[in-house]
Write a structure and sequence with these properties.
74% of the residues lie in helices and 0% in strands. With 193 residues, the protein is mainly α.
């Protein structure tokens, strides 16, 4: 599969399922299935994908699977469970072993956001917002971090760039609207911003 395709996590999950049809206990495939389901669920806000990813982690652990794919999935599971500090801790050795992996930087950005550390999220995401593999979710995540820091104009720019990258991304549309000054002013007046 082409991992610059906006559906690459779905394609990765399908490839993992195909491998598991041949060998149901294949550790790399078990980990990849869990990672791809969780990453897709986190990017698109799909609770169903997140639940499937968590089940895949449980299945992988039950099968005795270990390895980096499962560790990545466990970090994503922690992010989905709003356990940012645990995710950051889980990702540290993975990033040390693969410092140029754009997905790990994206996951670290998500983890830092879940850990309520917007500045660290931006630091994690800055190196990969131009990487075709993770550009759109990295821009959205960095925009959310900038919004959390009150950098509304910069957040707006990131959301607009994400939407330019994928015109069908509903999350980028919503986030772009939330970063629009008129909407921000209305939210503030309502006590919501």
């Amino acid at each position: 599969f082409n991992d610059t395709d906006k559906h690459h996590w779905q394609h990765a999950a399908a490839a993992a399922r195909a491998a598991l049809a041949v060998d149901p206990k294949q550790p790399d495939a078990l980990g990849l299935l869990a990672e791809s389901l969780l990453a897709d669920g986190l990017q698109h806000g799909s609770t169903g994908e997140v639940a499937s990813g968590r089940k895949a982690i449980t299945d992988a652990l039950g099968a005795g699977a270990l390895g980096p794919n499962l560790a990545r999935a466990q970090a994503l599971g922690a992010i989905a469970g709003n356990q940012g500090a645990a995710a950051v801790t889980k990702l540290k050795p993975l990033l040390a072993a693969s410092p140029n992996d754009p997905y790990l930087h994206l996951y670290d950005g998500w983890a830092q956001l879940a850990n309520h550390d917007a500045a660290s999220a931006i630091k994690a995401l800055d190196p990969v917002v131009g990487n075709a593999h993770v550009k759109e979710p990295a821009l959205v995540a960095r925009g959310l971090a900038k919004l959390a820091l009150g950098q509304v104009s910069a957040a707006h720019d990131d959301f607009a760039a994400a939407l330019a990258s994928d015109k069908d991304d509903v999350a980028a549309m919503v986030d772009l609207a939330a970063a629009t000054p008129a909407v921000r002013a209305s939210l503030y007046r309502l006590g919501l911003g």
